[in-house]
Amino acid sequence: MNRVNLAIIGGGLVGASLALTLQAAAKARGWTILLIEPFAPGDSFQPSYDARSSALSYGTRQIYERLGLWQAISRRAEPIRQIQVSDRGRFGAARLDALEEGVPALGYVVENAWLGQCLWQAIDNEVVSWRCPAQVQAMQAIAGGYRLQLDDDTVLECDLAVLADGGRSGLREQLGIHVRHTPYDQSALIANITPGEAHAGQAFERFTEQGPMALLPLADNRCALVWTRQGMDAKRLAELDERSFLRELQEAFGYRLGALRQVGARHLYPLSLVEAEEQVRPHLVVLGNAAHSLHPIAGQGFNLSLRDVQSLADALLAGPALPGDLPTLQGYHQRQRLDQALTIGFSDQVTRVFGSSQPLLAAGRNLGLLGLDLLPPAKSWFARQAMGLGTRPDPRGRP
């Protein structure tokens, strides 16, 4: 029977990042890593107007720099040089600036397909092997690891199984790992937009009575839109003709980037906060969206997962000769608990406070935005959360 040291179930951005973080040390240790992924990545990057994208924090850039990947990723990474936070119809506003924070950019927006290509092309095939397209149908805990049953009737065993198969993980349910599910009763409308003026690296967080929206800078002077609305209203917006949709978006967003000229394909995603009640068991780790799935408006989900990846890799490489022992995995989870709690709490509170139309909350957040812009320590704290540095040393050496 085939046996590997580490089986990563899900070869997407999180799973591939874990393989890359481990591969150099794994080669020295003689570890074998297997990525199991149902969807084969493309042979080459094909630019698309409608490509889905991710917001990478400055902390994520630092991680990929240490892996030697940032130079390739940065070729299509659009820097966020300024973030403007505003509340429609009210005077409160705040502006975060990369220069004030002493960093080249607060974050970056990258097409997922490009990021995936950069990751997959950097994988060392002498250490990391692929089973793709392939899917794990069943998992069974055995002495010293897990037995995996694949959809092609292959059976293999591993010392450590990493579950990184997404927020709707069927294997998580099969293993009896319960989740805390907090619905937001909202859907995110995702689309790419062409503005009339150059975005100049500006990102916008705009809060309205109908729900928050984010407009993030993309390559080729496009912007990635994340527009949160109530379920039926989101469906209505998704089905509008292009002119009517742009008219409503323009009314909600304003003319900060001139007249909005084009919208691409629109996609809807129901929103909820999902947290796995168990992230580690003997010889098992739950990672990425399978561990925690956040509201997208704060752009923290993938960045938190990548910090989990880095922390898990550090723990495994400081642990025993073979991966998977429970004390090592518990140590990893304990170290990440504060980061997860702060990031999830930050994302959830931003969603609730700025997504509410209650008069008292609206007045309070308006004053909060005004205070944020006037108080440098508060602004810097907020910027560090956005940059994914909330629990890490300040890049300017401040406490």
Mind explaining what this structure looks like?
The protein has 399 residues and is α+β, with helices and mostly antiparallel strands. It has two domains: 2-50 and 123-180 and 273-351, FAD/NAD(P)-binding domain; 53-114 and 183-271, D-Amino Acid Oxidase, Chain A, domain 2 (2-Layer Sandwich), CATH 3.30.9. It has twelve helices and 20 strands. It has helices at residues 13-29, 58-66, 70-73, 98-101, 112-121, 170-174, 231-239, 242-253, 301-317, 326-354, 359-374, 376-386; strands at 2-9, 33-36, 53-57, 77-80, 82-87, 93-97, 107-111, 128-131, 136-142, 145-150, 155-163, 179-195, 202-208, 211-217, 223-230, 260-263, 267-276, 280-281, 284-286, 292-293. Strands 5, 6, 12, 13, 14, 15, 16, 17 and 20 form a nine-stranded mixed beta sheet that branches. Strand 10 and strand 11 form a beta hairpin. Helix 1 (13-29) packs parallel to helix 9 and helix 9 runs antiparallel to helix 10 (326-354). The longest helix is centred in the last third of the chain and has 29 residues, at 326-354. It is globular and about 60 Å long. Mean pLDDT is 86; it is low at 360-375 and 393-399. One of its GO terms (molecular function) is FAD binding. Its cofactor is FAD. It is an enzyme of class 1 (oxidoreductase). Belongs to the UbiH/COQ6 family. This is 2-octaprenyl-6-methoxyphenol hydroxylase.
